[in-house]
Amino acid sequence: xxxxxxxxxxxxxxxxxxxxxxxxxxxxxxxxxxxxxxxxxxxxxxxxxxxxxxxxxxxxxxxxxxxxxxxxxxxxxxxxxxxxxxxxxxxxxxxxxxxxxxxxxxxxxxxxxxxxxxxxxxxxxxxxxxxxxxxxxxxxxxxxxxxxxxxxxxxxxxxxxxxxxxxxxxxxxxxxxxxxxxxxxxxxxxxxxxxxxxxxxxxxxxxxxxxxxxxxxxxxxxxxxxxxxxxxxxxxxxxxxxxxxxxxxxxxxxxxxxxxxxxxxxxxxxxxxxxxxxxxxxxxxxxxxxxxxxxxxxxxxxxxxxxxxxxxxxxxxxxxxxxxxxx
Length: 327
What we know:
Helices cover 6% and strands 43% of the residues. The protein is mostly beta strands. It has a single domain, classed as 6 Propeller (Neuraminidase), CATH 2.120.10. Strand 20 and strand 21 (227-232) form a beta hairpin. The longest helix has 13 residues, at 255-267.
């Protein structure tokens, strides 16, 4: 497919900058209108980098680093944070404005929450969360184990709204509020649903299916309705148009490493440590994307290996997240 005929834009190695440093596995990123950039931090908290470069760790629990490992997170109006916990305690946890850590959601529909991969707040301030798998994370990844699910917390409480996913990762709702999307990392696809006013998901469908070496992880919408998708391992950056055209804008990987990832995945021998390694020349095993800057045209790339955030300039602004003006 000729991307120039669909969306005349691509990225090169020289388009990336690395100005935000001193991070600890910044897998997920959020930005605010103040210019602040927030990143999940392995020190059991979220690191805020101000527009002046100053950095503040929100939360943090040095005494229990294995119990609390923030991944996706939500910025609340009152200054508190809710994070998806990859640590041994699992579930969703809350960091109050004063730094106090407390459980936010530990079970749903009678199921004790294991590690939770992602959490996100939509424009109606409902909270969506994704459990990648009910299996322990130290078990090999699978292309067929469809035990991931998506949950919703709204005025009715917490409930599972969709299941049967192969490694559920990030999720988003389109700017019109009519469609819900979720990445299935080891299913190698982005799955979509119709979304009604009550948060019900129907008309399940494959929006984009990816080939060898593409493992969709993070995603975000631009204000034109384009869905940006990030592939871990290969550092591939895609844009899926509202019409469904999939354009790859960049990739950065070592072919031998990707071939070994695919071999191990097929053989049931792929573990997280091997996925997390960096085998690229520019990017640091990219996992997510967020739009920020005064015009929301600066794209920030979260990663699962490095200690800095890559940025590039986008020709279109990102759709403003619900927290944009209060972050």
